[in-house]
Amino acid sequence: MMARTPIITGNWKMNPGDMASAVQLAADVAAQTKGLEGVEVGIIPPYPFVPPVRDALKGSGITVGAQNAFVEDKGAFTGAVSTTMLLSVGCEYVLCGHSERRTIFKEDNALINSKVLKVLSKNMRPILCIGESKEEYESGLNKEVCAVQLGKNLAGVTAEQMKDVVIAYEPVWAIGTGLVATPEVAQSVHAYIRSWLAGKYGQAVADDVRIQYGGSVTPESVDDLMACPDIDGALVGGASLVADKFARICRFQAV
Ligand SMILES: O=C[C@H](O)COP(=O)(O)O
Protein backbone atom coordinates (compact mmCIF):
# COMPACT_ATOMS: atom_id res chain seq x y z
CA MET A 1 0.00 0.00 0.00
CA MET A 2 1.22 3.49 -0.84
CA ALA A 3 1.10 5.94 2.02
CA ARG A 4 -2.03 7.99 1.50
CA THR A 5 -1.25 11.71 1.29
CA PRO A 6 -3.87 13.54 3.36
CA ILE A 7 -6.06 15.91 1.38
CA ILE A 8 -7.72 18.96 2.96
CA THR A 9 -10.03 20.91 0.67
CA GLY A 10 -12.06 24.03 1.35
CA ASN A 11 -15.45 24.08 -0.33
CA TRP A 12 -16.40 27.74 -0.33
CA LYS A 13 -19.93 26.95 -1.60
CA MET A 14 -21.60 30.24 -2.71
CA ASN A 15 -19.12 32.40 -0.77
CA PRO A 16 -17.55 34.92 -0.33
CA GLY A 17 -19.69 37.68 -1.83
CA ASP A 18 -17.29 39.27 -4.31
CA MET A 19 -14.07 38.72 -6.21
CA ALA A 20 -11.89 40.98 -4.07
CA SER A 21 -12.85 39.04 -0.93
CA ALA A 22 -12.19 35.73 -2.71
CA VAL A 23 -8.72 36.81 -3.81
CA GLN A 24 -7.90 38.10 -0.34
CA LEU A 25 -9.05 34.88 1.30
CA ALA A 26 -6.98 32.78 -1.11
CA ALA A 27 -3.91 34.94 -0.54
CA ASP A 28 -4.35 34.71 3.22
CA VAL A 29 -4.67 30.92 3.09
CA ALA A 30 -1.54 30.71 0.92
CA ALA A 31 0.40 32.89 3.35
CA GLN A 32 -0.76 30.95 6.39
CA THR A 33 -0.02 27.50 4.98
CA LYS A 34 3.37 28.43 3.56
CA GLY A 35 5.96 25.68 3.86
CA LEU A 36 3.39 23.05 4.84
CA GLU A 37 4.45 19.60 3.66
CA GLY A 38 2.96 16.14 3.57
CA VAL A 39 -0.61 17.28 2.91
CA GLU A 40 -2.46 18.25 -0.26
CA VAL A 41 -4.37 21.49 0.27
CA GLY A 42 -7.08 22.59 -2.14
CA ILE A 43 -9.60 25.38 -2.56
CA ILE A 44 -12.92 24.94 -4.34
CA PRO A 45 -14.34 28.41 -5.08
CA PRO A 46 -17.47 29.39 -7.02
CA TYR A 47 -16.92 29.30 -10.81
CA PRO A 48 -16.25 33.02 -11.45
CA PHE A 49 -13.57 33.12 -8.80
CA VAL A 50 -11.59 30.12 -10.11
CA PRO A 51 -9.11 32.04 -12.33
CA PRO A 52 -8.38 34.87 -9.86
CA VAL A 53 -8.10 32.42 -6.95
CA ARG A 54 -5.80 30.21 -9.04
CA ASP A 55 -3.62 33.27 -9.71
CA ALA A 56 -3.60 34.30 -6.06
CA LEU A 57 -2.42 30.79 -5.14
CA LYS A 58 0.36 30.66 -7.73
CA GLY A 59 3.54 29.17 -6.29
CA SER A 60 1.82 28.09 -3.07
CA GLY A 61 1.26 24.47 -4.08
CA ILE A 62 -2.44 24.81 -3.22
CA THR A 63 -4.62 23.28 -5.91
CA VAL A 64 -7.96 24.52 -7.25
CA GLY A 65 -11.13 22.59 -8.00
CA ALA A 66 -14.75 23.17 -8.98
CA GLN A 67 -17.97 22.62 -7.08
CA ASN A 68 -19.85 21.08 -9.99
CA ALA A 69 -19.67 20.31 -13.72
CA PHE A 70 -22.06 19.35 -16.47
CA VAL A 71 -21.67 16.15 -18.47
CA GLU A 72 -21.52 17.66 -21.98
CA ASP A 73 -18.45 19.42 -23.42
CA LYS A 74 -20.22 22.38 -25.04
CA GLY A 75 -23.46 23.42 -26.68
CA ALA A 76 -26.92 24.73 -25.89
CA PHE A 77 -26.97 24.08 -22.12
CA THR A 78 -27.73 27.48 -20.62
CA GLY A 79 -26.16 27.98 -17.24
CA ALA A 80 -23.98 24.89 -17.43
CA VAL A 81 -20.17 24.66 -17.19
CA SER A 82 -18.23 21.79 -18.76
CA THR A 83 -15.27 19.80 -17.49
CA THR A 84 -13.34 20.98 -20.57
CA MET A 85 -13.84 24.58 -19.48
CA LEU A 86 -12.83 23.79 -15.92
CA LEU A 87 -9.72 21.99 -17.07
CA SER A 88 -8.76 24.97 -19.22
CA VAL A 89 -8.83 27.30 -16.21
CA GLY A 90 -6.73 25.02 -14.03
CA CYS A 91 -9.22 22.95 -12.03
CA GLU A 92 -7.75 19.61 -10.98
CA TYR A 93 -10.82 18.11 -9.37
CA VAL A 94 -14.60 18.48 -9.23
CA LEU A 95 -17.04 17.83 -6.40
CA CYS A 96 -19.63 15.27 -7.47
CA GLY A 97 -22.74 14.44 -5.49
CA HIS A 98 -22.48 17.01 -2.73
CA SER A 99 -25.61 16.71 -0.62
CA GLU A 100 -26.60 20.29 -1.49
CA ARG A 101 -26.55 19.28 -5.17
CA ARG A 102 -28.52 16.12 -4.36
CA THR A 103 -31.22 17.90 -2.36
CA ILE A 104 -31.50 21.53 -3.54
CA PHE A 105 -30.72 20.81 -7.20
CA LYS A 106 -32.34 17.36 -7.31
CA GLU A 107 -29.31 15.53 -8.72
CA ASP A 108 -29.93 11.80 -8.76
CA ASN A 109 -27.45 8.94 -8.52
CA ALA A 110 -27.43 8.33 -12.28
CA LEU A 111 -26.50 11.96 -13.04
CA ILE A 112 -23.83 11.92 -10.35
CA ASN A 113 -22.42 8.73 -11.87
CA SER A 114 -22.27 10.44 -15.29
CA LYS A 115 -20.43 13.36 -13.75
CA VAL A 116 -17.89 11.09 -12.04
CA LEU A 117 -17.22 9.30 -15.34
CA LYS A 118 -17.00 12.59 -17.24
CA VAL A 119 -14.51 14.10 -14.80
CA LEU A 120 -12.35 10.97 -14.97
CA SER A 121 -12.46 10.97 -18.77
CA LYS A 122 -10.75 14.39 -18.69
CA ASN A 123 -8.04 13.15 -16.33
CA MET A 124 -9.42 15.28 -13.56
CA ARG A 125 -10.24 13.89 -10.12
CA PRO A 126 -13.78 13.56 -8.83
CA ILE A 127 -14.35 14.10 -5.12
CA LEU A 128 -17.42 11.93 -4.69
CA CYS A 129 -19.52 13.06 -1.72
CA ILE A 130 -21.75 10.51 -0.02
CA GLY A 131 -23.55 10.37 3.30
CA GLU A 132 -26.82 9.76 5.06
CA SER A 133 -29.55 12.11 6.27
CA LYS A 134 -30.39 12.67 9.93
CA GLU A 135 -33.35 10.28 9.74
CA GLU A 136 -31.24 7.59 8.10
CA TYR A 137 -28.54 8.05 10.73
CA GLU A 138 -31.06 7.77 13.55
CA SER A 139 -32.41 4.57 11.98
CA GLY A 140 -28.91 3.10 11.91
CA LEU A 141 -28.82 3.12 8.12
CA ASN A 142 -25.66 5.16 7.54
CA LYS A 143 -23.58 2.33 6.10
CA GLU A 144 -26.39 1.01 3.92
CA VAL A 145 -26.98 4.48 2.45
CA CYS A 146 -23.28 4.88 1.71
CA ALA A 147 -23.19 1.45 0.05
CA VAL A 148 -26.09 2.32 -2.26
CA GLN A 149 -24.54 5.66 -3.21
CA LEU A 150 -21.12 4.09 -3.80
CA GLY A 151 -22.60 1.35 -5.97
CA LYS A 152 -24.63 3.73 -8.12
CA ASN A 153 -22.21 6.66 -8.26
CA LEU A 154 -19.13 4.54 -9.08
CA ALA A 155 -20.84 2.35 -11.71
CA GLY A 156 -18.43 1.85 -14.62
CA VAL A 157 -15.42 3.25 -12.78
CA THR A 158 -12.46 0.90 -13.21
CA ALA A 159 -9.91 -0.16 -10.61
CA GLU A 160 -7.29 1.80 -12.56
CA GLN A 161 -9.44 4.95 -12.41
CA MET A 162 -9.96 4.63 -8.66
CA LYS A 163 -6.49 6.05 -8.02
CA ASP A 164 -7.92 9.41 -9.15
CA VAL A 165 -11.10 9.22 -7.08
CA VAL A 166 -11.42 10.81 -3.65
CA ILE A 167 -14.41 9.85 -1.53
CA ALA A 168 -15.84 12.38 0.93
CA TYR A 169 -18.03 10.96 3.67
CA GLU A 170 -20.34 13.80 4.63
CA PRO A 171 -23.20 12.89 6.94
CA VAL A 172 -25.89 15.41 5.99
CA TRP A 173 -26.80 16.01 9.64
CA ALA A 174 -23.25 17.23 10.29
CA ILE A 175 -23.07 19.73 7.43
CA GLY A 176 -23.22 23.32 8.61
CA THR A 177 -24.82 22.32 11.91
CA GLY A 178 -21.85 22.30 14.29
CA LEU A 179 -22.72 18.64 14.98
CA VAL A 180 -19.43 17.11 13.88
CA ALA A 181 -19.47 13.31 13.82
CA THR A 182 -17.43 11.78 16.62
CA PRO A 183 -14.14 10.24 15.52
CA GLU A 184 -15.59 6.83 16.45
CA VAL A 185 -18.66 7.24 14.22
CA ALA A 186 -16.65 8.71 11.34
CA GLN A 187 -13.91 6.06 11.56
CA SER A 188 -16.47 3.27 11.60
CA VAL A 189 -18.13 4.54 8.40
CA HIS A 190 -14.77 5.25 6.72
CA ALA A 191 -13.61 1.70 7.51
CA TYR A 192 -16.87 0.41 6.07
CA ILE A 193 -16.38 2.49 2.90
CA ARG A 194 -12.88 1.10 2.50
CA SER A 195 -14.13 -2.46 2.97
CA TRP A 196 -16.84 -1.79 0.38
CA LEU A 197 -14.16 -0.56 -2.04
CA ALA A 198 -12.04 -3.64 -1.27
CA GLY A 199 -15.00 -5.86 -2.09
CA LYS A 200 -15.42 -4.21 -5.47
CA TYR A 201 -11.86 -3.36 -6.47
CA GLY A 202 -9.60 -5.44 -4.24
CA GLN A 203 -7.77 -4.52 -1.04
CA ALA A 204 -4.73 -2.97 -2.75
CA VAL A 205 -6.89 -0.46 -4.65
CA ALA A 206 -9.02 0.28 -1.59
CA ASP A 207 -5.94 0.90 0.53
CA ASP A 208 -4.82 3.68 -1.81
CA VAL A 209 -8.15 5.57 -2.01
CA ARG A 210 -8.29 8.70 0.10
CA ILE A 211 -11.47 9.14 2.12
CA GLN A 212 -12.19 12.61 3.47
CA TYR A 213 -14.57 13.42 6.28
CA GLY A 214 -16.83 16.46 5.89
CA GLY A 215 -19.35 18.07 8.23
CA SER A 216 -18.61 20.90 10.69
CA VAL A 217 -14.85 20.28 10.75
CA THR A 218 -13.08 22.95 12.82
CA PRO A 219 -9.60 23.52 14.24
CA GLU A 220 -10.97 22.02 17.47
CA SER A 221 -12.19 18.76 15.92
CA VAL A 222 -9.70 18.10 13.13
CA ASP A 223 -6.86 16.54 15.12
CA ASP A 224 -8.91 13.73 16.63
CA LEU A 225 -10.58 13.02 13.30
CA MET A 226 -7.28 12.90 11.44
CA ALA A 227 -5.85 10.52 14.03
CA CYS A 228 -8.29 7.84 12.82
CA PRO A 229 -6.67 5.27 10.55
CA ASP A 230 -9.21 5.50 7.72
CA ILE A 231 -9.72 9.28 7.73
CA ASP A 232 -7.40 10.73 5.10
CA GLY A 233 -8.49 14.33 4.99
CA ALA A 234 -11.31 16.80 5.38
CA LEU A 235 -13.78 18.55 3.12
CA VAL A 236 -14.31 21.81 4.95
CA GLY A 237 -17.19 24.23 4.43
CA GLY A 238 -17.75 27.06 6.89
CA ALA A 239 -14.31 26.98 8.48
CA SER A 240 -12.64 27.25 5.06
CA LEU A 241 -13.97 30.82 4.79
CA VAL A 242 -11.77 31.98 7.68
CA ALA A 243 -8.12 31.83 6.65
CA ASP A 244 -6.59 31.16 10.04
CA LYS A 245 -9.14 28.45 10.85
CA PHE A 246 -8.61 26.72 7.51
CA ALA A 247 -4.83 27.01 7.83
CA ARG A 248 -4.99 25.43 11.29
CA ILE A 249 -7.08 22.59 9.89
CA CYS A 250 -4.47 22.07 7.17
CA ARG A 251 -1.85 21.93 9.93
CA PHE A 252 -3.78 19.20 11.76
CA GLN A 253 -1.78 17.27 14.29
CA ALA A 254 -2.83 13.65 14.15
CA VAL A 255 -1.28 11.71 16.97
O1 LIG B 1 -18.39 20.56 1.52
C1 LIG B 1 -18.33 20.81 2.71
C2 LIG B 1 -19.30 20.29 3.63
O2 LIG B 1 -20.59 20.42 3.16
C3 LIG B 1 -19.10 20.67 5.07
O3 LIG B 1 -19.59 21.95 5.35
P1 LIG B 1 -19.39 22.54 6.84
O4 LIG B 1 -17.92 22.38 7.15
O5 LIG B 1 -19.81 23.95 6.75
O6 LIG B 1 -20.23 21.71 7.74
TrEMBL record:
<dbReference type="GO" id="GO:0006096">
    <property type="term" value="P:glycolytic process"/>
</dbReference>
<dbReference type="InterPro" id="IPR000652">
    <property type="entry name" value="Triosephosphate_isomerase"/>
</dbReference>
<dbReference type="GO" id="GO:0019563">
    <property type="term" value="P:glycerol catabolic process"/>
</dbReference>
<comment type="subunit">
    <text>Homodimer.</text>
</comment>
<comment type="pathway">
    <text>Carbohydrate biosynthesis; gluconeogenesis.</text>
</comment>
<keyword id="KW-0324">Glycolysis</keyword>
<dbReference type="GO" id="GO:0046166">
    <property type="term" value="P:glyceraldehyde-3-phosphate biosynthetic process"/>
</dbReference>
<dbReference type="GO" id="GO:0005829">
    <property type="term" value="C:cytosol"/>
</dbReference>
<dbReference type="InterPro" id="IPR035990">
    <property type="entry name" value="TIM_sf"/>
</dbReference>
<keyword id="KW-0413">Isomerase</keyword>
<dbReference type="InterPro" id="IPR022896">
    <property type="entry name" value="TrioseP_Isoase_bac/euk"/>
</dbReference>
<keyword id="KW-0963">Cytoplasm</keyword>
<protein>
    <recommendedName>
        <fullName>Triosephosphate isomerase</fullName>
        <ecNumber>5.3.1.1</ecNumber>
    </recommendedName>
</protein>
<comment type="pathway">
    <text>Carbohydrate degradation; glycolysis; D-glyceraldehyde 3-phosphate from glycerone phosphate: step 1/1.</text>
</comment>
<dbReference type="GO" id="GO:0004807">
    <property type="term" value="F:triose-phosphate isomerase activity"/>
</dbReference>
<dbReference type="Pfam" id="PF00121">
    <property type="entry name" value="TIM"/>
</dbReference>
<dbReference type="GO" id="GO:0006094">
    <property type="term" value="P:gluconeogenesis"/>
</dbReference>
<dbReference type="InterPro" id="IPR013785">
    <property type="entry name" value="Aldolase_TIM"/>
</dbReference>
<comment type="similarity">
    <text>Belongs to the triosephosphate isomerase family.</text>
</comment>
<comment type="function">
    <text>Catalyzes the interconversion of glyceraldehyde 3-phosphate and dihydroxyacetone phosphate in the glycolytic and gluconeogenic pathways.</text>
</comment>
<dbReference type="InterPro" id="IPR020861">
    <property type="entry name" value="Triosephosphate_isomerase_AS"/>
</dbReference>
<keyword id="KW-0312">Gluconeogenesis</keyword>
